[in-house]
Amino acid sequence: MKKKGFDYLKGITAVDYKDHLEVVYILFNTENKKQEVVTVNLKDNNSIHTVIRLYKSADWLERELSEMFGITILGREAPRLLLEKWNGADAPLRKSFEWGKDYKRNTP
Amino acid sequence: MSIMRINVGPIHPSTHGVLRLMVDVDGDSIVDVNTHIGFLHRGVEKLMETRMYMQNPSYTEKMDYVAPLAWDDLYVHAVEIALGKEVKEAAQYARVILDEFQRIASHLLWLGTFCNDLGQMFTLFMWTFRERAEIIKFLEDIAGSRMFYVNIRVGGLWKPLPADFRERAYKLADYIEGHISQYPEILDKNPVFSERTKGIGRLSLEDAINMGASGPVLRASGLEYDTRKAMPYYVYDRAKFDVPTSSSGDAYARYRVRFEEMKQSLSIIRQMLDNFPKNEDVVGMPIKLIGPQAKPDPVILSHELPRGEGIIYMIPDKQKPYRIYMRSPTYMNLSLLSHLSKNHKFADLFSILGSLDVIMAEIDK
Lengths: 108, 365
Known about the structure:
The complex is a heterodimer of chains A (108) and B (365).
Chain A: E1 8-16, E2 21-29, E3 34-42, E4 47-49, H1 58-69, E5 72-74, E6 86-87, E7 104-105
Parallel strand pairs in A: 4-5
Antiparallel strand pairs in A: 1-2, 2-3, 6-7
Chain B: E1 3-8, E2 20-26, E3 29-36, H1 44-49, H2 57-60, H3 68-83, H4 89-118, H5 122-143, E4 152-153, E5 156-157, H6 165-180, H7 183-187, H8 191-197, H9 205-210, H10 216-220, H11 227-230, H12 251-274, E6 299-305, E7 308-316, E8 321-327, H13 329-334, H14 337-341, H15 349-356, H16 360-364
Antiparallel strand pairs in B: 1-2, 2-3, 4-5, 6-7, 7-8
């Protein structure tokens, strides 16, 4: 996509369809002002390769993705948790996250 | 030389919320900045999946409490697209006017606090808050609430506009224009302001695009990209306005871009008031809403919020959103902080942070 001129990564997110996860990339071409949404299906495994070498903006976006959905980002190191340190639940935005359960916060 | 680590925050007047910075300094120059966020994380996206469509605006407007109307408008517009509902023409004009007033109010608050961060400039803080108070009074008379308006409904607004709406809006625009035109006098000629902003936190265009800078920060680095022009929504394509840009990409350029944006907003407001439809019916649908019955396509919508481009990616369901993603522009802008402040003096850190215009509620979501 980057070779096609999509040089601006606006956002990364995911959707939990219960049987599979779908990762969504929102890309933008700053030359002709065109926007494109790319979706990737994660059928079996919960991991996806990083795009940080192409887009530096993926740094915080991928960390948010991995913390909120429990997706492993391959090919990069995340030095620490960015948003939350939860004990017991790894993926709060997944549909399997139990609503109202008492999760203890892991305070350092 | 040994490296010393200084902790800033989470509670600090210059971090504009609960932001913690671990700054590694060598003497007085910054080696690295570790940004710790998440103190305000409330899981808005998860909460919104559990609420009915029109219960959610009370969450979206707490995303950015300085410009609540902007996020509210973006969310309700996304719901309208999902349901296939048209927005009344007069309501489109009214929303553009309210959004632009909200943008000016937000930029005024930013300018005041930014000068406060730079020190010794309390005058401008008082001035900008005086102007902002007039806008808030105006919005209060329309929405009935001073800070969180929740007056945007599917198809229009909550209640009819007051009879003297246009008259007051014209007067308010004149009032603001008269006052903000005095600001360059006190800012551009002020040596303290120039020294602390010019050449500080320089961001090249290449880095700005690659690192995902958004809104005024991106435009200050030279890219002429404004969602209102590139992907027009409502009646923005009927207004003539410029997209202010700058090539230097420093804190001063960000101030200039935001200042010019306020002037452009006033011009948009006047054009909208001139062409306001004769049929002034703006009242939208009641709050009870049943969503789409068939499985619709995902909705993706961008609005130009005061702090940058906000995007909503929504998978609609019958009564609630199945999944909603809100891309907050300041989340991307704050991630630039460590890159921008390297090799600067420690005292410049707050000049850079202030120029990025961060709102922690929007970052942590």
